[in-house]
């Protein structure tokens, strides 16, 4: 088993808290934007694990999704 990534855990925890707060305050676009950011991060992590070589700081959702179209059925171990 790998060492837990506490930095990533706390970043996601904060993102989920901000997403919940934005939703409760009536800011649906902020809620969607935070969710999109989390989804993109996970897709990039998966794509790069499988050798995509995408820059996580500069790659938007579209190129991350292209990886899945080009490599269907690729699953993390």
Helix-strand category: mainly alpha
Order of helices and strands: HHH
**What is the radius of gyration computed over CA atoms, rounded to a whole number of angstroms?**
14 Å
Q: What are the segments in which pLDDT stays under 50 over at least 5 consecutive residues?
A: none
The backbone outline, from C-alpha atoms, is globular
Distance N to C terminus: 12 Å
User: Fraction of residues in helices?
Assistant: 55-70%
> Based on DSSP secondary structure assignment, what is the total number of beta strands?
0
Global mean pLDDT? 87
Counting structural domains, the number is: 1
- Largest β-sheet summary: none
Number of helices: 3
Strand content: under 5%
Short description:
The chain is built from 3 helices and no strands. It is mainly alpha-helical.
Characterise the protein shown here.
This protein has 77 residues and is mainly α. The protein has one domain. The chain is 66% helix and 0% strand. It is built from three helices and no strands. Helix 1 runs antiparallel to helix 2 and helix 2 packs across helix 3. The chain is globular, with a radius of gyration of 14 Å. The chain starts with 5 loop residues before the first helix and ends in a 7-residue tail after the last helix. The model has no long low-confidence stretch (mean pLDDT 87).
């Amino acid at each position: 088993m790998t060492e837990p990534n506490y930095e990533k855990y706390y970043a996601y925890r904060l993102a989920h808290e901000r997403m919940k707060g934005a939703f409760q305050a009536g800011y649906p676009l902020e809620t969607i934007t935070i969710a999109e950011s989390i989804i993109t991060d996970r897709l990039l992590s998966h794509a790069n694990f499988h050798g995509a070589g995408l820059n996580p700081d500069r790659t938007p959702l579209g190129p991350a999704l292209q990886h899945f179209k080009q490599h269907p059925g690729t699953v993390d171990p």
